[in-house]
Structure formats: structure tokens, C-alpha cells
Specification:
The complex is a heterotrimer of chains A (123), B (457) and C (211). With 123 residues, chain A is mainly α. Chain A is built from three helices and no strands. Chain A has helices spanning 5-33, 40-43, 63-115. The longest helix of chain A has 53 residues, at 63-115. Chain A starts with a helix and ends in an 8-residue tail after the last helix. With 457 residues, chain B is mainly α. Chain B folds into two domains: 10-127, no CATH class; 132-445, no CATH class. Chain B has helices spanning 12-40, 43-54, 64-101, 117-126, 138-155, 173-194, 198-229, 234-239, 249-252, 254-270, 295-320, 331-338, 347-375, 383-414, 417-447. Chain C has three domains: 1-34 and 134-158, no CATH class; 48-120, NADH-ubiquinone/plastoquinone oxidoreductase chain 6, subunit NuoJ (Four Helix Bundle (Hemerythrin (Met), subunit A), Up-down Bundle); 168-206. In chain C, 78% of the residues lie in helices and 0% in strands. Chain C starts with a helix and ends with a helix. The chains are: A mainly alpha (123), B mainly alpha (457), C mainly alpha (211). Chains in contact: A-B, A-C, B-C.
Chain lengths: 123, 457, 211
């Protein structure tokens, strides 16, 4: 008897609930059991014992953003590859060439990004 | 040995007995629970159980759904408990191994060989003050551990423990395993940002950049076993492999060996393991995104980090190392042992399941030990090296392995024997390399005038 | 002075557009649909329905969080909830691959990108910088314009309903469709991805030089 998708995926929802429930219970328990004696020094952000200088929420290198952009592009590419990879044996040469074109386009993109020095972290 | 001023309440022998009892009972109960319940929560099994043991007709009995739900919830709880326990045990094991590697004593107080240390630590952390920095974002700071925790918990849904031992054999199994990492990334980013600490923010940014970067080579490397198996299901990928090393994906295709290495490295990086532990580099960033976390909130992050080692190792075993496949047991044997689908399976089937679980656990532990070994051998790399390795080496090589596998599969369709042939050669090569390595280690030990001492545990 | 004039003009234009939208949609969508209205088939509220409404609720609550939150990072959390909810609704349609792809791309990719962007930007959590509002009046107007149309479409359209089928091999079906019928869009997708890569480079280089 094959399962409906809902039946197959039901455990995921359950684990999601049980997992966060477990975390919640443990944290509540820790809340009840643990002491609470805050003071100013304790509540200040850690900066090796000295008084924090400036704000932590300052501007950040744009390089991180570029990494995220690169990730999305190749991530989407991987999502396209997965359904095809499952089928590869049935598609034959036509499918093979089609996918090669797809992958080649992205490899060209990677080469371009590489050439432009975006992948060089240290400036 | 330091002399303690107090008298110890237990004799060394009693401590050993207690430790062994705790260890054996805990793991025995968990593995039995996983064995029985992951097999039993399939609707067919529940129906058979209700019909044959309880003696009711599952189709008309009003409580069938309730029984299903409750057994699923218990399974989920057991799997998560297993995740937590294996995480603690891994911490203990890693600390013992690292102590040996660095000529220290390591854990030796709580229980024999310090085995109960992780339990003591967990209890201690429960009693610690839960600090939230005054200028932190209260809501996000509290919410972040849940994301990390659920991301970790969700991996156990599709993680195979044996032939029929998986909570849900998803059609999109491995794809799902890649996707749930997303929640962990979000959790890490929120933890780093909400702390309002420079160390935490740097750590969080680095961690997120690292995890998302290495997801790319990992995703492409996964495509190689998927191509070879023709399915995304974790169980399907294992079924496409054999029990013997020369039937494993890692050895049957040269590109798969490359993909295995790429995937292994990517997993290390995604798990923030040395040499990729820059996000929480304790000598530069204090503790990275964890800096401001304390008490049990910290414990949750820590649990996930070490529990992830098991998940990593199990996924590697599944994709490349033949998973739970038992020698001399074919798919037909499994079907035969199962008997009629409407009935409860016999003892033979359960025995086979246990055996498959043993194989899977053993392989997973071997991989896990390699991960531990690497952590205490290699130094940390710099962030630019980390990015270079990912985008300039792993990604191009992963693409190359992928394209090679395409050709390889076409070739295999013509010459099926090629896989067996390559399997034998690669296995032989691996054994030879391992032997050479062992000999070199032995020679090094002899040359340094040292000796191997396995007595002082 | 010019600012108020501009705002006033915007509102007048907005109102006109909203009224026009309602009228046109009334002619095009609501009218014809109302004629062919069929009573919804009576169904028993099983567990599946309950689950559906819970997940739909999560999605809507997340979306509301995105719109109403004063802190842009809370909006991001709301977005995550909405995306997760929408992803889980795909499972109801037997589209498991799509559900996981939603998780991978939207939460793993887009949301992380949004978080990066937020965290890279100075003072973004200050409400005056990021979450400025065009005013209650504009929002209300838009709501009045769009809500009846959407509501009418939702209630009147004879939605096709199917009973949940056994788990189909959606991954294979998608792969097959991509490489046969939808081959051109598929290959164009790679070009779009290439273009976005080039765009990313262009942005990044400019920023780094400006530093």
C-alpha cells in the first residue's frame, strides 16, 4: 500500500513539533532551576573584560553578501540538476547534451566570477 | 593521579560497574527503541500489529489513527533522545581521544574513564544562570536556538539506521537532508546578530558564509551517487550499492571517490569542524556566534554541533559506503524474510534488521572517528583559504566529477563489468595505501623511540 | 511643501487606480465567475482539513508578521514562517520535490540573502530607516481595492478538487518535463542565472572600490 505524500511527510511535522517542544521544555526547566542574579557587568557584551567600544551593529564587508549571491545562483542550479540526475539513464544523449549546455553556462559564469577576482577573499 | 581530599563514595570497581550499566542500558534502550519503532510505524506494520496482536480490524477500529500518531510521536522522541545522547557520548569520546593525542589525561572523574561527564555537564548547565545580554535583541536571541535545534532534529526523519529502519523514506531524501541545513544557517545568523557582540556577529557571519559556500560543492558532489543510483531516496541509494567494499559507490567509480572526498570536506566545513572551525575560533573570536550564550541555551547549540557528527557520518555512509548492506544478503533475501506483507514479520526478519543496523552503526562510527582524528591533527585555516578551497578547488572538481560520472554511466550501460573491475582495483589500492600508512606510522613510532600504550585508559 | 504635494498626488493617483482596478476586475473576473457559480461540495472536516487550516494560518500569520512588524529582522522571521507554511502546503498537492525546493531556495537562499543584506546595512533596524510606512490611508485604500476582488475570486471560482493520490514520483516528472516540453525555458533559466552572477560581480566590484 503506497502512502499518500501527507502520510509520508507527517513524521516531519511531528519531529518539528517534538524537537522544538523538547528544546522548550529543557529551556523552561533551566529557567526554573537556574539562578537569576543579573548585574551590569554580567549583562554587557563580552569584550575580553574591557568596556565595549562602539556598537556591534556596524557595517560589514560586502564580500559576505556576494558569497550569498553566488550561493543562490548555484543553489538554484543544483535544484535544476536533481530532477534530471534521477532520470539520467532514461534520457539518453539528447538529455545529456541539454544538461551539459545548462552546466556549461554556469561554469562560464563561475569562470567569469573567478576572473573578475570576486573569489579572492583577501584584497 | 591527583589525590582528592574527600573520600570517594564508590570503589573503582563499583564505578566501573555503574558506568557500564548506564552506558549499556542507555544505548541498548535507544537502539532497541529505534529498531522496533522505526520499523513499526509504517501503516502496514501497525495494521498487522492491530490485527494479529490486539485482535481488532484496523480499518474499522476507532483508535487506529491514535495508535499511529502516538507511536510516531514516541519514535520522534526516541530519535531526538538518541541525537542528544550520541552528541554527549561523542563529546566524551572526542575529549578522550584528544587527550591521548596530546599526552593529557582528559576526562576521568565522572564515571569510569569519565564516561558520565557529559551527563554531569548537562545537569550542571540546567542549573546555570541563563544570561541574555542587556542590549541583545531579546526575541531573536531566544528564538535562535530553536532554529538550530529543529534543523538538527529534522535530519533524523530521513536518516537510515537499517534496511527498514528509517522514520520516513522520503522520495526526495537526500535533497531534503541538504535543504534542512537552511534552518541551521538562519539560526546561526540570528544568534550572531542578536547577541549585539562583535565576536558573535563576526562568528555568525563567517559561519553562515562558510556553510552556504560549502553547500554548493556538497550539493554537486551528492549528484554523483544520485546519478549512479537514479534516485534521491536515501534507502534507494543504499539499495543500489552492495555490501562488499568493491560494490560501494566510493570505489566503483573514480569520480565518486573524488565526490566522496569533496563531500567529506564540505561536511566538515558545514559542521564547523577543524580545520574549518573559523566561525568559532576560540583563540580569535572567543566562541564565535556562541559567545554570549550561556546555560542551557548554549547547551542546545553544543548538542547540535556534536550530534551533527553522527548525521554527517551516517549520510556519508549512506551515499558512498554501502550503508546497511549485509554481505551475502540480497534484496530477494530481505523480501523472503519479510514474508506476507499483511502479516507481522518473523524473528528472522528482525534479526536481519538488527544485523543491518549493526553494520550501519559500525560504519558510521568509523567515519565519525576519522572526523575526530582530523580535528586533532590539522590546524585551522584562514578565511581566505577557506573561500579559495571551496570556490576554486572543490566546486570545479565537483563539476568535473559530475560530468565524468555522466560519461561513466553511459559507459557502464555498455560494459556493466566495468564497475566490478574498478571496484576491485580501487579497493585494492585503498587497502595498499592503508597498509603503507600503517607501516609508516609504525616506523615513525619506532624511530622516535616511543611505544603504543593502550593500557592507560 | 513639495513633499506634501507629491504625497497628495500619489494618493489621488492611487485612489483612481484602486477604483479602476475594482471596476475592471468586476467586469472581467467577478461578473463572469458569479454567473457560473457552483455550490461548494460538502466535505467532512477530517484531520487533513484541520492540518491544512493550521498550516494556512501559520502562513498568513507569517505574512502578517512581515507586513506589520516594526523591526526588519522580525519581518524576516515572519517571512520564514510564511515560506515554511507555503512549502508545507505543497505537500498537500503531492508536490514533495517542490516543497523541499521551497525550503532549499527560499529559506536556505533568499532568506539568508535577505538576512545578510539586513545585517550588512548600517542602522537598518531603526524603524525610520527601513520600515517607513506610506501611511495608513494608502494601505487601507489598497486593501479596499484588492480585498473584494481576491475574496470574490477565492469564493466564486469552481476550484478543482482532487483526493490525495499515492505519492507520485514528482522528481522524475519534473525532470522529464524540464528536458522535453519546457526545454527552452529551462536553458534560458541558466542564462538568467548567468546574468545574475554578472550582476553580482558588478555590484561587488563597485562597492569594494568605493571603500
Amino acid at each position: 500500500m503506497p502512502l499518500t505524500p501527507l502520510q509520508t511527510y507527517f513524521p516531519i511535522g511531528l519531529v518539528l513539533l517534538v524537537g522544538s517542544g523538547l528544546a522548550l521544555v529543557l529551556l523552561l526547566l533551566a529557567n526554573v532551576l537556574g539562578p537569576r542574579r543579573p548585574n551590569a557587568a554580567k549583562m554587557s557584551p563580552f569584550e575580553c573584560g574591557s568596556v565595549p567600544v562602539g556598537s556591534a551593529r556596524d557595517r560589514f564587508g560586502v564580500k559576505f553578501y556576494v558569497v550569498a549571491l553566488l550561493f543562490i545562483v548555484f543553489d538554484i542550479e543544483a535544484v535544476f540538476l536533481f530532477p534530471w540526475a534521477v532520470l539520467s539513464t532514461e534520457l539518453g544523449w539528447a538529455g545529456y547534451v541539454e544538461m551539459l549546455i545548462f552546466v556549461a553556462t554556469l561554469v562560464v559564469g563561475l569562470a567569469y566570477v573567478w576572473k573578475k577576482g570576486v573569489l579572492d577573499w583577501a584584497e | 593521579m591527583l589525590s582528592s581530599p574527600q573520600r570517594k563514595p564508590f570503589s573503582p570497581r563499583a564505578v566501573l560497574v555503574i558506568t557500564l550499566a548506564v552506558g549499556v542500558l542507555l544505548f541498548g534502550a535507544l537502539f532497541t527503541g529505534i529498531l522496533v519503532l522505526t520499523a513499526a510505524i509504517k501503516p502496514v506494520m501497525i495494521a498487522a500489529f492491530l490485527r494479529q496482536v490486539v485482535g481488532v480490524d484496523p480499518a474499522t477500529w476507532p483508535h487506529t489513527t491514535l495508535v499511529t500518531w502516538v507511536s510516531m510521536a514516541i519514535t520522534a522522541l526516541i530519535l531526538l533522545t538518541f541525537g542528544a545522547v550520541i552528541s554527549g557520548a561523542t563529546v566524551w569520546w572526542e575529549m578522550r581521544v584528544s587527550a591521548r593525542m596530546q599526552s593529557r589525561i582528559g576526562y576521568n572523574r565522572a564515571g569510569a574513564g569519565g564516561f558520565l561527564q557529559w551527563i554531569a555537564d548537562a545537569v550542571k548547565l540546567l542549573f546555570k544562570e541563563d544570561l541574555i545580554p542587556a542590549e541583545a535583541d531579546q526575541l531573536l536571541f531566544r528564538v535562535a536556538p530553536y532554529f538550530v535545534m529543529t534543523g538538527f532534529a529534522l535530519t533524523f526523519v530521513a536518516l537510515p539506521f537499517g534496511e527498514g529502519l528509517v522514520a520516513a523514506d522520503l522520495n526526495v531524501g537526500i535533497f531534503y537532508m541538504v535543504a534542512v541545513t537552511a534552518l541551521v544557517v538562519v539560526g546561526i545568523l540570528l544568534a550572531g546578530w542578536s547577541s549585539n557582540s562583535k565576536w558573535a556577529l563576526f562568528g555568525g557571519m563567517r559561519a553562515a558564509a562558510q556553510v552556504v559556500s560549502y553547500e554548493i560543492p556538497a550539493g554537486i558532489a551528492i549528484m554523483v551517487p544520485v546519478l549512479m543510483a537514479g534516485t534521491l531516496s536515501m534507502q534507494g541509494i543504499i539499495r543500489a550499492q552492495g555490501a562488499w567494499p568493491w560494490q560501494w559507490f566510493v570505489f566503483t567509480n573514480p569520480a565518486a571517490t573524488v565526490a566522496f572526498l569533496i563531500f567529506f570536506i564540505s561536511q566538515l566545513a558545514e559542521g564547523n569542524r577543524t580545520p574549518f572551525d573559523l566561525p568559532e575560533a576560540d583563540s580569535e573570536l572567543v566562541a564565535g556566534y556562541l559567545s554570549e550564550y550561556s546555560g542551557f541555551r548554549f547547551a542546545l547549540f553544543f548538542l547540535v554541533e556534536f550530534g551533527n557528527l553522527w548525521v554527517m557520518a551516517a549520510v556519508l555512509t549512506t551515499l558512498f559506503l554501502g550503508g546497511w548492506q549485509i554481505p551475502w544478503v540480497s534484496a530477494a533475501d530481505w523480501t523472503a524474510a519479510r514474508g506476507a506483507l499483511g502479516d507481522l514479520p518473523g524473528a528472522g526478519w528482525w534479526g536481519l534488521q538488527l544485523l543491518s543496523m549493526l553494520v550501519m552503526v559500525l560504519k558510521t562510527l568509523v567515519v565519525l572517528n576519522v572526523i575526530v582524528w582530523i580535528r586533532w591533527t590539522l590546524p585551522r585555516i584562514r578565511i581566505d583559504q577557506m573561500m579559495n578551497l571551496c570556490w576554486k578547488y572543490l566546486v570545479p572538481f565537483a563539476f568535473a566529477a559530475f560530468v565524468f560520472t555522466l560519461l561513466w554511466q553511459v559507459l557502464l550501460a555498455r560494459v556493466p563489468l566495468l564497475a566490478t573491475f574498478t571496484g576491485f582495483i580501487m579497493t585494492g589500492l585503498f587497502v595498499a595505501m592503508a597498509a603503507l600508512f600503517g607501516r609508516q606510522v609504525k616506523a615513525n613510532i619506532a624511530a622516535s623511540g616511543d611505544h603504543v600504550d593502550l593500557t592507560n585508559w | 511643501m513639495t513633499q506634501t504635494t507629491g504625497k497628495l498626488l500619489g494618493w489621488i493617483l492611487g485612489t483612481a487606480l484602486a477604483i479602476g482596478f475594482v471596476v475592471v476586475m468586476g467586469q472581467l473576473a467577478i461578473g463572469p465567475a458569479a454567473q457560473s457559480m457552483v455550490p461548494a461540495p460538502a466535505t467532512s472536516a477530517g484531520l487533513t482539513e484541520v492540518l491544512f487550516y493550521v498550516l494556512a494560518g501559520v502562513t498568513i500569520a507569517g505574512a502578517a508578521g512581515v507586513a506589520l512588524s516594526h523591526n526588519i529582522l522580525y519581518s524576516a522571521i515572519g517571512l520564514l514562517m510564511a515560506l515554511l507554511g507555503a512549502g508545507s502546503l505543497y505537500v498537500f498537492l503531492s508536490a514533495d520535490f517542490l516543497a523541499v525546493a521551497q525550503l532549499l531556495i527560499y529559506i536556505g537562499g533568499v532568506l539568508v540573502l535577505v538576512l545578510f543584506a539586513v545585517m550588512l546595512t548600517n542602522r537598518i533596524t531603526e524603524i525610520t530607516v527601513s520600515n517607513t510606512s506610506l501611511g495608513l490611508w494608502g494601505g487601507l485604500m489598497l486593501f479596499v481595492a484588492v480585498a473584494p476582488v481576491l475574496l470574490a475570486v477565492a469564493l466564486v471560482t469552481p476550484w478543482a478538487t482532487i483526493t490525495p493520490a499515492a505519492a507520485a514520483h514528482t522528481t522524475e516528472t519534473i525532470g522529464d518535463a524540464l528536458l522535453s516540453r519546457w526545454l527552452l525555458p529551462f536553458e534560458v533559466a541558466s542564462l538568467v542565472l548567468l546574468a545574475s552572477l554578472v550582476g553580482a560581480v558588478a555590484i561587488a566590484r563597485k562597492e569594494i572600490k568605493a571603500d
